[in-house]
Amino acid sequence: MAVTLRDVARAAGVSPATASRALSAPDLVAPERRELVRRVARELGYRPNRAARELITGRSGHLCLVVPDLENPFFSAVAKAVQARARAAGHAVVVADAEEDPLLEAELVTHLGAQADGVLLCSPRMSPDDLAEVAADDRPLLLVNREAAGLPSVVIDNRDGVRQAVRHLHALGHRRVAYAGGPPGSWSDARRREGLVGDLAAQLPGLDVVDLGAHAPVFAGGVAAADLALAAGATAVLAHNDLMALGLLDRLRTRGVRVPDDVSVVGFDDAPVATLVTPALTTVAAPLARLGRTAVDLLLDPPRTDAPARVALPVELVVRASTAPPAAPAT
Amino acid sequence: MAVTLRDVARAAGVSPATASRALSAPDLVAPERRELVRRVARELGYRPNRAARELITGRSGHLCLVVPDLENPFFSAVAKAVQARARAAGHAVVVADAEEDPLLEAELVTHLGAQADGVLLCSPRMSPDDLAEVAADDRPLLLVNREAAGLPSVVIDNRDGVRQAVRHLHALGHRRVAYAGGPPGSWSDARRREGLVGDLAAQLPGLDVVDLGAHAPVFAGGVAAADLALAAGATAVLAHNDLMALGLLDRLRTRGVRVPDDVSVVGFDDAPVATLVTPALTTVAAPLARLGRTAVDLLLDPPRTDAPARVALPVELVVRASTAPPAAPAT
DNA sequence: CGGCGTGCTGAAATCGCATTCATCGCGGAC
DNA sequence: GTCCGCGATGAATGCGATTTCAGCACGCCG
Fold this sequence. Notes:
The structure is a homodimer. Chain A folds into 3 domains: 5-48, no CATH class; 62-156 and 289-313, Rossmann fold, CATH 3.40.50; 158-287, Rossmann fold (3-Layer(aba) Sandwich), CATH 3.40.50.2300. Chain A has 13 helices and 12 strands. Chain A has helices at 5-12, 16-24, 31-44, 50-57, 73-88, 102-114, 128-135, 158-172, 187-196, 199-203, 219-231, 242-254, 288-300; strands at residues 62-67, 92-97, 118-122, 141-144, 153-156, 176-181, 208-214, 236-239, 264-269, 282-285, 310-313, 316-318. Chain A is α/β, with parallel strands linked by helices. The first copy, chain A, has a 6-stranded parallel beta sheet with strand order 2-1-3-4-5-11, sandwiched between helices. Chain A starts with a helix and ends in a 13-residue tail after the last strand. Chain A is elongated, with a radius of gyration of 25 Å. In chain A, helix 12 links the parallel strand 8 (236-239) and strand 9 (264-269). The structure holds a DNA duplex.
């Protein structure tokens, strides 16, 4: 069987209590004894039993990460970073795929989260009410890529992202820019739309933003949006995410429209795939790894303020080959 | 605090022993009492403490999945399926990213795997010796996408995959086909190379297979291989995986070579990205989801044979737009 | 010299649950 | 009528660690 703390204690000629202290509260035990115990433990290959420790301390050493779709490059990037940071902090990560289902999402949080030290809830699809419900558990909960009243969160600066993209297009000479939106109800899509209105139009003379409506945030959604963009006479299209931008690229090519010569396309997220296509995608790069790391840090030791922490990470436009001045520049 | 089994027992007016049995060994307790306990448990929102249960049963309800890179679409697809199947079987999944590092891989297996009910080791980078070492733990271990002596495994039929691809190219009229290999030491790459030699050449008259050597299994590796393929005068290139195929596509386009008109390209894996590019990639589709599901099933209840189980899953060529007859057909 | 704080140590309790063992009541067999 | 067996139940034990609590020796102060 596995070697237990009692074995170590016996081999070292001390009581289990002392052995325990030597390993997890070193300054409570006399130096030479402490070193003896540690050496014996190492030699015996002692490995503390997580379950036993959890039972008494109440901490499992597990974090729970819930994402809508593990296969989506956005979430796998976040998951990778979360996993790495958690490991550095001595935590394992239990990851759960909610399959884009709000109900399953809620169940996963309550079931899996119940016996974890904290829950990272990524882009939750569930309603604010359900969110409040699952957050009622005493387990620490942190929202990633979404904000909600009373809950700590880490997001990216969506508004600034679209602004950077639109400024870039305007600077290139585009005057009629289309936005291919994400799914209805998406929190991040709502934020991005906010960036399109307001003072932006005032700052950019002659700019005309046309809304292409809501689409599934996948390749097919981009395909559908492409036709709308052409019909609207836009010379540039900003997509809700990179997958949609890829769909735009594909459909435009099929219809004989050259990118970027005839129409410019901008994505969002800077998923790895953005560099794998031709033309390489100009896109708003979200700091996905940093998002994951920050989330873990914030969950593991939250700031000691009374209001829940809200962090927004900066984004940065990455200009590649899918944007260029329009064929017939305005002015 | 959380509601414990004692609370349920007290509320139901029975002993903790009976309460325990009513929930986890229902036929040992009288029907009306059993239903009473279960109802009370439900009303109180009782949720068994995993740590306490693990401490006594030795089973944690956790599976451990170790992959080289979570961001690689191959592994995120497997991870998604593993997670889904494990949940259906009442298990949570602890996922660990080994960052392509054999040492870290070994450490993760021993550390994380020690307190899991089993370990799924995906495409392990570590040496056969280290593999045997970590497998020496009594925890069930199952290899995914690699075989090793004495260990159970689930793989895809790599040899048949390249054979299907080559037959396809030969049928189109290609006679000079290049193989852009994966990293040296890759188990799956070795299997794929096996498919290229042997009786295949005998069956396909006039076929000439040229080996482009080893490459990093990423976009850049494909770029490098593209120039080699052109220099070798191949009219078709089979890539070790889809990422490399995308690199080939990109480089060929850059050099003014049209795909599939001038050169055909075939990928491997059928990663989601294969359909997102232009031309859509002809590729050998590996049943990634099935791979993950089978792995979980085999780990959770292994066949009662003495030899460790070895399963090979069939693959299927998916013909898309990146392959066509060569410009100047042989014969 | 007595008393008290201090620094270490060990015995024992505890966490929540599963499980063994003993008990009890009851019906059927002899 | 007695005894055996069986089904149902509760008391008690233990899983492996942490953590109180008490005890012990020692040194210092009064």
